[in-house]
User: Fold this.
Amino acid sequence: MFKLIIGLSTILATSVFAAPKDYLYVTIGSDAVSGADKSLSTGKEIATAGGISVMRIHKNEVLKLSTMMHDKFNRCGGFVAHESLEEAQKVLSNGLTRKFSKSMPFLTYTIDQQETVESLVAQTSEFSIRTVIEKLSSYRNRYYKAQTGVDSQAWLKGKWTELGEGRSDVKVEYFNHSRWPQPSVVMTIEGNSLKDEIVVIGGHADSIAGFWGRERAHAPGADDNASGIATVTEVIRLAMENGYTPERTIKFMAYAAEEVGLLGSKEIANTYKKAGKNVVGVLQLDMTNHKGTEDLDIVFMSDFTNESQNKFLAKLIDTYVKVPWGWSQCGYGCSDHASWHNAGYPASIPFESTMRDINGKIHTKHDTIEQSGGNADHAEKFAKLAVAFMVELGK
Ligand code: BES
Ligand code: ZN
Assistant:
């Protein structure tokens, strides 16, 4: 590992061991970032956690940074140079405060991808979303123990595979669960430079109705949750059709067996936790197409979610979606975001209404798209938000 405490030796070394394009990455106390920003013309903060930040600077400005640290902070050096961004990121991910900390922000949330986001947001298609809702709700049910629940996942895997065709950095796989037949479906876009940092965008694919004989019950689950899966699918369509390539790894997930106790997502989130995977953000899309609250379009559940990430999402709405948003609470772990939250990862669930105005037809045979006006207008707003989340976190 190439790592030096900054001093004269580093200044000399950097001219020999220049990072790609003559930039190098430094880890620095987060309190010094704004000072560094001001005194350097190339300084850019890339990540922060536990009081440490990663900055990218041009090698010609190392001396300037060193002088600034000395003058302003009375620190001799005060930063560490790294050969690659991945090395620098490791300092952050190894930091005790970062791993599974529930209160700290995991990242610096910044909004600076206007060009890409605005272009993608302008391309969302109500028709594409509606078509997927109609297809998924045409299965008798998508119950976790029913053959139709296996078949609907096979269709979805096929759909996502087709969208990702021709991309060597994209794969679509089943995550099989040993205790029931319905698999989860996971699509991965491998990140360019920050492969180990994962952004998850998902929702549950199963549906449920009745009490006895659920394997045979009619459970179209158009709102709960064909709408969320269709929203995820729209983000995938936009990413693929525009040749989008993220720096971080993006994973799209369609969880099995949510309706019976968040079983699918619990198994996935706990597997990730055990493997020490670095999931930097989770977006849960569960019920996006029934506008139940007159004055609000998107409502954030404040419980079992990460406050910093919720606020970041609200800013993304103001910047890119421009619809009214508000807060509500489930009062319990009402969907898969709770599985991720409980595993220590930052999760959010932007929801279609407040809890008071909940769609009364869910978990019945009447949960159809007709109940939401026969269109996907409401879900389209969530697709815009999700695409902004993907790009601004995936960078
Ligand atoms: N989509 C619902 C979650 C939901 C319902 C959120 C109403 C907000 C308002 C989800 O599919 C569901 O039904 N969850 C279960 C809980 C789960 C632990 C079985 C529920 O709410 O009963
Ligand atoms: Zn449900």
